[in-house]
Amino acid sequence: MRNEPPPRQLHLNVNILHSGFLPSAWRVPGADPRAFLDVRHYVNVARIAEAAKFDAVFLADNASIADQLDFRPITALEPSILLATIAAATDRIGLIGTASTSYNEPYNLARRFATLDHASSGRAGWNVVTTADLGSARNFGLDAVPAHAERYARAAECVDVVKALWDSWDDDAFIGDQALGRFVDPDKVRPVAHRGAHFSVQGPLNLPRSPQGHPVLVQAGGSADGLALAARHAEAVFTASPSFDDALAYARRLKDAAAALGRAAPKVLPGLTTIVGATEAQALRRRDELVDLIPWRYSANRLAGTLGVPAERLAPDAPLPDGLALPAGGSGNHTFFHATLAQARRHGYTARELVRAMAGGTGHRVVVGTPEQIADDIARWFDAGAADGFNLMPDVLPGGLQDFVDGVVPLLRRRGIFRAEYAGATLRDHLGLARPAGRGANPARESA
Known about the structure:
Elements: E1 11-15, H1 39-51, E2 56-59, H2 79-89, E3 94-100, H3 106-119, E4 124-129, H4 134-139, H5 148-166, E5 174-177, E6 182-184, E7 194-195, E8 200-201, E9 216-220, H6 224-233, E10 236-239, H7 244-260, E11 267-276, H8 280-292, H9 296-307, H10 334-347, H11 351-357, E12 365-369, H12 371-384, E13 389-392, H13 399-407, H14 409-414, H15 427-431, H16 443-446
Parallel strand pairs: 1-2, 1-13, 2-3, 3-4, 4-9, 9-10, 10-11, 11-12, 11-13
Antiparallel strand pairs: 5-6, 7-8
Helix pairs in contact: 1-2, 2-3, 3-5, 5-6, 6-7
């Protein structure tokens, strides 16, 4: 009798964007304006997600003040330190943190995420990004953002070096034999001796191989260069997919690109903002109330920044200008530019209508409705292969996540596509990923 593979399961992360995805989330009754600095807020959200058996919490990051400080909370706390705090307060949920290859060195990145993996008993993930804003460039001594292709060439080399450092200790290099006085087998700890176009790193790493072998590699970026990086290295991809057809086409391109390199396709996890109501009218009213709390000045500046145009070019009640080109001569953020423009052109939105449809955001898909409508939408994308799951970005935190957990998650379980219990203890277990074999792999451990 042939063993059938287990049924495919939906993956859910929660992206803890301080008070919530909507810029006005901090203004709702009961919200704490200081939540963006309060580790207890992040721990609370993580515990709600863990109780619902989510795969992971996800933290974005910026190397500058990348939002309008006079109106909205910013991403202020450094992700790996915050995730270590969350690790100490949780048991199973994965911990994915963003760190840029543009303004970090491979050795520090390898050490930081391997440490988080050790500290959490195998729950760490690194979201690999390049950084496209001028403010970050200036914070690291540059007068201009490096060209798009250059950023991605650096990123590819950086990830190569980080993976080599994670493998610079064999799994059985640590001995710790008190009777014999043998602590580490030095023959099983090797330098990486890397000399490349962007980095020179001798190695080895100064800590043993972590519980997952490699922390899970996540990638965010939808350009051609981003897809190539994901196909080569990523195990999951955080995408901005405004429509079903776009998402399905991207998933197929990524699968083909990974297969050409002899790799399994990474998990595709589009960003998804949810606004839940007992009725559709109630959900739409909630969206409108939140959007109406956002000053037009803020929305116009944010939309203009995504599109790379002066805010004065955006008339609130007119369509977006014609002839828009990639920001910064092609060195800006490709992903959100294309996702935002696609939504506007597809529906013929005015600038004001576009802001409302995106719930004040910049390109991620927004679903507004009842738990049943949202569950149907998620299942449609999942069943068709347009997504393996979602990086959930609730409108308001923690309330919007609790609404999703109470209303949508039971419906997904009823469909048989989302777990009721964790099957393992590591982030790789949650995502169904194998532990990478090291350079001196121990076959018994790798098959365990």
